[in-house]
Amino acid sequence: MLPIIALLGRPNVGKSSLFNRLVRQNKAITHDLPGVTRDRIYGEVTEEDVRFAVIDTGGMLPDATELDGGGMDKSVFDQATDALYEADVALFVVDGREGMTMLDQAVSEKIRASGKPILLVVNKVDGPEQEAKATADFHALGFEIATVSAAHGYGLNSFRERIAELAKPFVTPEPPSGPELGLKLCMLGRPNAGKSSLVNSLVGQERQIVSDIAGTTRDSVDVGFEKDGRRYTFVDTAGVRRRAVITDHLEKLSVYRALSSSKRADVTILVLDAMEGLSHQDKRLIAYLAEQRTPFMVVVNKLDLVHKDRLEELREAYGEALRICSHVPVLYISALTGAGTHKILPLAEEIRRECVIRIGTGALNRAMAEAITKHQPPVIKRRRAKFYYLTQADEDPPMFVFFVNDAELVTAAYGKYLENQLRKLLKIKKAPLAAVFRSSHEKKEAERPLTNRPPRLGKSRRDMEAAKIDQPAKLAKPGKSGKATGSGKAKAGSKRSAGAKTAASRKKG
Question: Could you tell me which of 57, 102, 56 has the C-alpha nearest to residue 76?
């Protein structure tokens, strides 16, 4: 188990910015608006050969209660309290520009009562000339003080070294094991579909804040747990709404993080609300995941609120929407009652196994021969596609390349047929699969190419054409009207007049 360092303090003192500096990536959303961070966000740091975990928490408001309308503030405070209880060392972050406030004193009493080692971090100190003034009020608390600037990087090197020293006594040897994160599962869906409730139900504890208010989750939060000797990490994301509806910059950033998390996860769980039915945004999310070749399953939540008479209609609607990716499995569950949730993890394991499958070239070519024998490719412009061999070009998810004489001869319908046959013969039923067709060599010309030949001419016409070629055309002479008249036309005119006179004389005779 890694030592755990928790960042605690009142809202808007720079805890998330400091967290991003420590983990060296923009994992937590930072904004000038107070109260952006709500759930606990975990990260790992290695400093001075010491590995430890860091927890970013929301702003603590000790006076917030559910009775005075501070339900969300109370939930955030409870999350920060759980982080303090879980941590080995507490980093109490304050604002050096504003000095000590009454809220800082209230938070300090809460942290002091935990009995954990405490390091007071005075943030927003941009240089050594500001240290004396920024720390003057905080010496009265009696904590060890470190001055930093998360925005500009001042004092961060010595700060990291000090944290490593505080974490070192809590380092325990770990037994050799597999990847730390295990199977990574991303929760994706519209706001208020029940993603956080489902995470809490599967983990078995209130790790995520659950509220009827849409948009409660803002960051992409990693939640790790272990079940039956297997390690899992859930990535709970913010709700994804239509782009036209989003006007807040903070929500745009949250949606971007959510879609990015789906690309990095092993399996994505698309959570849909059974009460609201299949919306246009749900269809767009399905199309997006199918286009990106993302391994995913569809989980229809809140089934406990659906009347039994509507259940069949609901199944038909989701089956119709998933025709573009018929391989995607659908589960109907209730995160509140736990009905059907036990099927999620085994199904995710099955999808993952199919994604990393590797099949030999021999087995692939036997499958290809069987598929082509069952149904020959269509004839296109008097030609039929000829398949040479099949190979696996990539995995996670699998991609298969067919080498043919001409890829343009493979129609979309026949390509879909081959993809379905591969799924059936290779037993890849739930993972995304790509079939690519590639020409094995340059296209050959047609067997009997058409050539531009002159038309067949009679003997007299041939002689006339030969005479024209042998005798170069004479230059045209200008006529009386100033226009050029061709010699050929003049001769033809004289012949016609001579012929007319001969015919007239014959008539007289």
Answer: 57
Q: What is the CATH number of domain 183-355?
A: 3.40.50.300
C-alpha to C-alpha distances, 477 to 294, 383, 485, 488, 495, nearest whole angstrom: 79, 57, 6, 11, 19
Report the distance separating Cα 117 and Cα 108, nearest Å.
Answer: 12
pLDDT in tens, 187-225: 888 887 888 888 888 887 665 544 444 444 445 567 778
- Nearest to residue 231, comparing CAs of 313, 352, 326? 352
Chain position carrying tokens 């094991």: 177
How do the domains of the chain map onto residue ranges? 4-170, 183-355, 361-439
Residue recorded with tokens 């991303």: 186
Looking at residue 236, what is its pLDDT?
Answer: 73
Per the listing, tokens 């702003």 go with: 59
The hierarchical CATH code for the domain 4-170 is: 3.40.50.300
Q: Is 158 exposed, middle or buried (0-12, 13-18, 19+ CB in 10 A)?
A: exposed
Reported pTM: 0.56
- Record the tokens describing residue 400, joined without a space: 């298969």
pLDDT above 60 for 421:
yes
| pLDDT tens-place string over residues 350-407 | 999 999 989 888 999 999 999 999 999 999 888 999 999 999 988 888 899 999 999 8
Query: In three state form, how does the secondary structure of 323-356 look?
Result: HHHCCCCEEECCCCCCCCHHHHHHHHHHHHHHHC
Which residue bears the tokens 């009386």? Answer: 480
Half-sphere exposure of 353 (CA within 13 A, CB side): 10
Architecture label for domain 361-439:
2-Layer Sandwich (3.30)
Common-topology check for domains 4-170 and 183-355: yes
The mean per-residue pLDDT over the stretch 172-185 comes to 60
